[in-house]
Amino acid sequence: MQQARKRILGVDPGSRKTGFGIIESGRFNPNYLISGVIRVEKYSGAQRLKNIYQSICQIIEQYQPDVLAIEKVFVYKNPKSAITLGQARGVILCAAAMYDVPIMEYTPTQVKSTIVGKGHAGKTQVQFMVQNLLKLTEAPQEDAADALACALCHDRYMSLGIDPEVMSKGSKF
């Protein structure tokens, strides 16, 4: 029985640049729809958050994703950076909640392990694998590639019937 295709919005949150990417799920062949980067570095404070929120809302309205896959925040050495990133992530989660889009969270290690095979893969490796998995003619921008990798990670987990919460506790597949 063919599983219904789902649109997955992957997001790589950032306080200056937020990557996004949308794929349609498929057990053997996820399809690329769109990706890009929301750039807010020229704004300050609350205006950045507002622009991220509005941009994510516009993407959700236009593409009607079935789920949002987002990277979990990991602990930074700089607490101020962690707080700033947490704020950006918060407005993204709020936008998804406003449109009743379910949210799935993955650690950067989960995403990289799933896409590249190594939990500490570099940005170039992620870009290369995303380009190959989605059969793109060129590598996406770094932040967009990270977002697409998050969407691909969710697609992989769901196609295998794996609960991401169980995997985040250290299990391997």
Give the topology.
Blueprint: E1 7-12, E2 17-24, E3 31-39, H1 45-63, E4 67-71, H2 79-98, E5 103-106, H3 108-115, H4 123-133, H5 142-159, H6 164-167
Parallel strand pairs: 1-4, 4-5
Antiparallel strand pairs: 1-2, 2-3
Describe the protein.
Mg(2+) 2 binds at residue 71. One of its GO terms (molecular function) is hydrolase activity. InterPro entries: RNaseH-like_sf, RNaseH_sf, X-over_junc_endoDNase_Mg_BS, X-over_junc_endoDNase_RuvC. Belongs to the RuvC family. This is Crossover junction endodeoxyribonuclease RuvC. The structure is a single chain. 46% of the residues lie in helices and 18% in strands. With 173 residues, it is of the alpha/beta class. The chain has one domain (7-167): Ribonuclease H-like superfamily/Ribonuclease H (Nucleotidyltransferase, domain 5). The protein has a five-stranded mixed sheet with strand order 3-2-1-4-5. Strand 4, helix 2 and strand 5 form a beta-alpha-beta unit. Helix 3 (108-115) packs across helix 5 (142-159) and helix 4 crosses helix 5 (142-159). The longest helix is centred in the middle third of the chain and has 20 residues, at 79-98. The protein starts with 6 loop residues before the first strand and ends in a 6-residue tail after the last helix. Mean pLDDT is 88; it is low at 167-173.
